[in-house]
Amino acid sequence: MVLLSGGLDSATTLYEARSQGYRCHCLIIDYGQRHRREVESAKRIAQAAGSAARVIRIWLPWGGSALTDRSIRVPVGRSLKKIGKGIPATYVPARNTVFLSYAASWAEAIGASAIFIGANAIDFSDYPDCRPNYYGAFRKVIRLGTKAGVEGREIRIATPLIRMTKAKIIRRGRKLKVPYELTWSCYAGAKRPCGRCDSCLLRAKGFREAGLRDPALV
Question: I need a surface site. Which of 72, 175, 178, 193 has the fewest CB within 10 A?
């Protein structure tokens, strides 16, 4: 089971899971974000990887994030020094907890042995649900709160990118032949990435430090 958002990290995670011999089922979640561009990218990535994919739609009507509430502005033009220093307006309340709960339910239903998620705690925007201690806690939730866990059939949460810089992720993805030209990281849904939001800036930093051109910008 791979949680696939359509971004650089989740695409790399899918190809990493494939390289480990897993037969992957991709869960793509449309949660009412500002645009559907990343959902369409996720579908194309799953197809390129030859993996089964399922798109589900959920609703988070209370907003509380610049990604789900258009009255809240997406931060743009922040310096790289400021990114990762404090939780930004693009944090979606408990998003990964919601996503992992859906993934755990589907994984248990089909007998999947692992859930892969592209969380990263190095080049990231300081989201609390991207940190290693959070995933340690959620592993315990699955072990205690599912039939599979109680019966000793582990559903592993795999976070292969959690301690990697964006540059290292990109270099690893290049070896795995990840189609980065299909990925979408920008918080805006225009024809081309804005180049100014935190996600665009972190992505640009990764490609620059990896010494590679971003194929999505060609």
Answer: 175
